[in-house]
Amino acid sequence: MFSKLVFAGFTRCALGALALLASSSGVSLAQEAELNLYSARHYATDEALYADFTRATGIRINRVDADDAGILSRLKAEGSSSPADVILLVDTARLWKGEVEGLFKPIHSKLLEKAIPEHLRARTRTEGTSWFGFSTRARVIVYDKSRVKPEDVDSYEKLALPVNKNKLCARSGSHPYNLSLFGSMLEHLGAPATEVWLKELVGNMARTPKGGDTDQIKAVGSGECGIALANSYYVARLLRSGAQQDQALMQRVGVIFPNQASWGTHMNIAGGAVAQYAKHPANAQKFLEYLASPSAQSYFADGNNEWPVVKGVQINNPALQAMGGVNFKTDPLPASFIGMNQIKVQQMLDRVGFR
Amino acid sequence: MRLISLLRLLVIVLLALPVLMVLAAWLQWNDGSADILLGMASTVLPSYVVSSLGLCFWVAIGVISMGSVSAAAVTLFDFKGRRSLEWALLLPLAMPAYVVAYAYSDFLQFSGPLQTALRALFGWQGALWPDVRSLWGAAAVLSFALYPYVYLLVRAALVERAPQLMEAARLLGADLPRRIFRVALPLARPAIAAGTALALMETLADFGVSSYFGVTTFSTGIYKAWLVMDDRVAAAQLATFLLLLVALMLRLEQKAQARLRFASQRSMGRGAESQPLQLRGWPAALVLLLCGMPVLLGFVLPLLIMAHALWVHSQSMWIDWLTFSVWMGNSLYLGLLTAVLAVGMALSLAFSQRVHPGVWQRLSTQAVGLGYAVPGVIIVVGLLLPIGWLQKTWPQSQAGYWLTATILGLVWAYLVRFIAVALQAVQTGYTRIPISTDEASRTLGVFRTALFTRVHWPLLQRSTAAALLLVLVDVMKELPATLVLRPFNTDTLAVMAYQLARDERLGEAALPSLALVLVGLLPVMLLSRTLRKT
Q1: Which superfamily is assigned to A138-265+326-352 in CATH?
Q2: ipTM of this complex prediction, to 2 decimal places
Q3: Long-range contacts formed by B123-128: CB under 8 A, 24+ apart
């Protein structure tokens, strides 16, 4: 009985696999009204963003969501046979890496070059621009209002002050968000001073790095940590959360946009590019241009609590406003510096014992 | 027969290829990766090794004690609630370890609902207990998730002969402790070894739980070298050390099995009069409590925590049931397909090793099984490297396209990763068929294919069913390869649970996680039914 079942199951699976192969191998080799998207974005409002594009243009979107590193290595292996048209990534350094490894196809788009500030996209060369930022997130400092003075934490450098001993919490130093911030510090402070700074951060920690950014904010809200580094959209999400528990936690949490007196707050870029071997390059460019449209930009701002890159886009996000994040000075450091510093930063982290 | 051997060779090559690519990384030795390796060796590597070994040690203690005690309890004794426990003990199998990790840390952490409520209620200050996100926490979570492997194999080993032998020992005047340690334990030892080996291989390959808990293991080093330093060669070289450790473990386990072959030399008779020992009163309560703990902590409690998180967030959430059922369908489809393929291959490999027990057969089977202990991401690298090379040198092959635009690459990765599970189950099944059965069959003129279909297959059906269901559940929970290699529009429950949790939306992640657990329950129930029927 069992053997019959297994045999029947086997045949069915084999047939099913063939059918799936046959159907999926038809995906998108021909120039059709569709677009193949590899995305490292993983946010709730993205669905609506894509649906709007399809509604406006009639172009259907096929999608694979994965993490940045996975997408880059998949692209590398697929080479010229890659079905991808558009790549969306959520970290400055990875965007830079995709560019230098030749995974993106540079494009000429008057619209994008005009709409997106120069430090939020790849350098424009004769063959075009290889990637564009579409939204940014600030790496902010959150602190416990009851036991930390804001003037002790108003810059990244001050996190290393002795007064902040046993107060600091952070996620793993090897997470892209931290690596990019530390990469920018390396550019501003120089290597020796950055290493000393990182060592002092480790000395100030209230606990070993663990969990994600939300965990750090909650740890501040509950009094376990005094200070934490977090991406702005996690802070905004907790501020907007309907859960009573989150509301209570956030009562205690203050938010600082660091380095207003010097080079500005570190911003991480989420951006996109046309894939080097795109089979639907025209659709791909159309999609990127759509991402810079006012309606798409307000999805980033109002839906996912990010900052739009296009000037003049109205922000109707109470949390961003409550955080004081409408007008602040941002660090204009180009992505290439941050990208190039990654390995050096990781080696420093290993030396100073920043987990 | 020739064709079958050729196919088998092809399968071995395909399954071993990603792992071999890892070893081949040493041929690409260059200054850049040497610099990274030396840098890590002089700073963080020693501590990674220490915490990996520590984690393995505690997980071994955890799975052996929970798995074998519970298996022994439900086979050697009879007590109230035994029949329910028999299948309930398998439930944690349906629970992905990372879901348990998310659930416990969210619930028990300093800022979690329990501590916050207790502090508010009693006015207490500070942390009320040590942080779950630690080496201890990781060891506990992994033990809860992995002990069913030991339980499953030990129970299968005991259920066939232990009651009769224990009865015989009792008639010869041995007291209970002596019967357990001198009769049951030796019977169960190969199974304990096999189950623990599986659990430890998973532990070594784990990245999800330990990274979330901030426990920096050897896998952390591999991930860092690859993802942060962007040096796949260095990552692969580090992975080689992991492979060596696993190869050593497999060797030890096989030695243990070989020494205990005597247990299989007798044919299995089942005396109708031999009954498990009846327990009443406090011994029964104690046994019930002991066996109930793993189910409670490894399944019921995390399930309740997730359900609670879902409830808290359900007001502000809109659930698209259609999309949801598509994720479920994808999970089941990929799981079933891989399970059938994996079991077919495992049967073929194990049979070939049985009839031609040569060095080559043994080595090739071992090489194929190594994939289980390699972190999923490394398998992805090992798979992408040769395909990328093929695509570059022969673009017309469209190799890269076939790998990811279809499910071929994904199923390949699953097989590399989980063939070991199927192999373990099938091989354990084989150890229970005495060699003398084969010899007798041969003298009766039954050879080759007939030996398999007429003699082995009827005796292996239960192990095969176990293998099938274990692989199915494992594939549904698999993450790194699914994330990177799946074709367009093929989201699964595991992928969605991870994406939402990665975005730190635990409330929303609870829904696909719960569904994953519920879908995983079905095979687990079937598994326990198959095991019950003799």
Answers
A1: Periplasmic binding protein-like II (3.40.190.10)
A2: 0.85
A3: B127/A224
